[in-house]
Amino acid sequence: MRTTLFELLSARTDARALRIGEQAGAVGFVTVLTVVAAQVSMPLPFTPVPFTFQPMIVLVGAAALGARLGMTSQILYLALGLAGLPVFAASPALPQGAARLLGPTGGYLMAYPFAAFVAGSLAERGFDRRYLTAVLAMACGLAVVFAGGVLWLMLFAQPALGFSGALRIGFTPFIAADVAKLVVAAGVMPSLWWITGRHQ
């Protein structure tokens, strides 16, 4: 039976209440990592979308937690942002709070739960245990993030750009760096599975 790394580790806990607590703690931990990754951002002069490490945290966290908990961690992240906490990437031009979701980065942010669900679902099927399949799982999740971001730019945030313009400012500047990050991040889960197997 396929399982996630988190489920394997938490299965050692017998009490149901403790397992629920572990789940809540794991979700909260990935949410905090997402917040921290958002603060490591770099504004770019030719696009309103900043460069951050959030997508990789979203995807690795989901691979570790699975679809349901990974998605929950990103819904919690968005809820904190909607509540007005400064969890989104720092920007002199983009506001914190609910208004951020209506701006040019809103599509990426709102895609995080769905990307986490996709990557987590594939991890539950064992894609995170080998490097090449981990790359595939994370690439699928990253595709969801980019699809959400580009479509939001094109349809709502800056419709005058059209599809080619949305690609120009929302996809092209980031794809090479994100693929490079993905190639590195995809090695995290297979390594953790190997370490876990060695110490069981």
Give a brief rundown of this model.
With about 200 residues, the protein is mostly helical. It is built from ten helices and two strands.
Tell me the layout of helices and strands:
Layout: H1 5-10, H2 16-39, E1 41-44, E2 47-52, H3 54-65, H4 67-82, H5 99-102, H6 106-124, H7 131-157, H8 162-170, H9 172-185, H10 188-198
Antiparallel strand pairs: 1-2
Describe the overall structure.
It is a single chain. 42% of the residues are buried. 71% of the residues lie in helices and 5% in strands. A hairpin with a 2-residue loop joins strand 1 and strand 2 (47-52). With 200 residues, it is mainly alpha-helical. The longest helix has 27 residues, at 131-157. A two-stranded antiparallel ribbon has the order 1-2. The chain has ten helices and two strands. The mean pLDDT is 93. It has a single domain, classed as Arp2/3 complex 21 kDa subunit ARPC3, CATH 1.10.1760.20. Helix 3 (54-65) crosses helix 4 (67-82) and helix 3 crosses helix 7. The chain starts with a helix and ends with a helix.
Please name the defining characteristics of this protein.
200 residues; two-stranded antiparallel sheet; 71% helix; Arp2/3 complex 21 kDa subunit ARPC3; mainly alpha
